[in-house]
């Protein structure tokens, strides 16, 4: 199921408030970081680590802030090969895959895989680690 949202399994940190556009963001959406201190839904490789939406953001509600997890253990979807212990980056909307060379140095790492998976399978991710 391409684009499935992340599901919180173990809360290790409380979410923080970050800026966002007045658009729809489902709870569990994997978020990329923009400047200044702003997040949006991920969409492609090389998205910067922002976190995971801790709440739903409704389009047109006038809110310009959203609660964001930047740590925790989540069940997420693999967009390609995922290897246990390897850092993970965005493959496309709400999908992750193993890092490539220099991804850690560039801020692309979203976390570390706690189990292996293949395209379309779900796996446990420790968010915010491994960068």
Estimated structural class: mainly beta
Distance between the termini: 27 Å
Sheet of most strands: 5 strands, mixed, barrel
What count of helical segments does DSSP give? Answer: 0
Which strand-content bin applies to the residues? Answer: 35-45%
- Structural domains: how many: 2
Query: Which percent range fits the helix content?
Result: under 10%
List the secondary-structure elements in sequence, H or E.
EEEEEEEEEEE
How would the blueprint of this fold be written?
Elements: E1 7-10, E2 16-20, E3 30-34, E4 38-41, E5 49-53, E6 65-69, E7 72-78, E8 87-92, E9 95-98, E10 111-113, E11 122-127
Parallel strand pairs: 2-4, 7-9
Antiparallel strand pairs: 1-7, 2-6, 3-4, 3-5, 5-6, 7-11, 8-9, 8-10, 10-11
Structure overview:
The protein is globular and about 40 Å long. With 131 residues, it is an all-beta fold. It contains no helices and 11 strands. It has a 5-stranded mixed beta barrel with strand order 7-9-8-10-11. A 5-stranded mixed beta barrel has the order 2-4-3-5-6. It has 2 domains: 56 residues, no CATH class; 56 residues, no CATH class. Helix content is 0%, strand content 41%.
